[in-house]
Fold these 2 entries.
Entry 1:
Amino acid sequence: MSNPDQMYDEAIALKDKGNLPAAVEKLHEIEALAPTHTLTQSALAIMLQKLGRFDEAIAHAKKVVELNPNDPFSVSQLSVIYQRCGRIPEAEDALAKSRVMNSGGGGCGSGGCGHH
């Protein structure tokens, strides 16, 4: 059996050949085996958005943020996915959150964000 990284490379090769539906199918196979494989979740967000499957794309972009809650890039990607899916208010909210994170104003110290 292939590992998630090898399967991901296969999915990207399918995308590069212009076969987004097959790439998405391969990514869903990875997701079933390794639901926390961040690259898979991110790629699904992008490819599903390109296929016009907006609700699914947003769900995967949100999953990336769940997996990497302190990563401003993940929040920025969520903003872009929202924007490309026509969800402008949500895009603006995510962009604002990303900017706060990038400026260091997120209130999280070196230990990350915890519950108080």
Entry 2:
Amino acid sequence: MERTFFREFKNKIIYNVDYSNIKSEQEFLAVLDITNAFRVENIENKEHKSQLMFINIQNSFIIGKSFERLKEAGNKAKPYLKKQAVLGISGTKQVFLNLYNKIIGGEMRAFSTEEEALEWLILD
């Protein structure tokens, strides 16, 4: 399963990261390593600014070192991101999202459907 990729939505390019259905810290960290390498190779090294980013964390758990590593990745990605939308946030994950946004100064927004998230991303 491809976890990080670009896709087109209504003539806009969206940077996608899929953390869905991850149940262990080890698996989450492995996927995070893959997504970090993709970001460096395809965004940072090419100096792509103003990326629109869609993140899917449905049915996943952020535990242990995962949150700390996500903060690090978020700080590195921040200069390249214009907007971030996330799917799969509810309950305690909303607390983590609020904390994440506060720590990195981000504006990641949670949505209940993929369609809503993508529509919001492409609004100027």
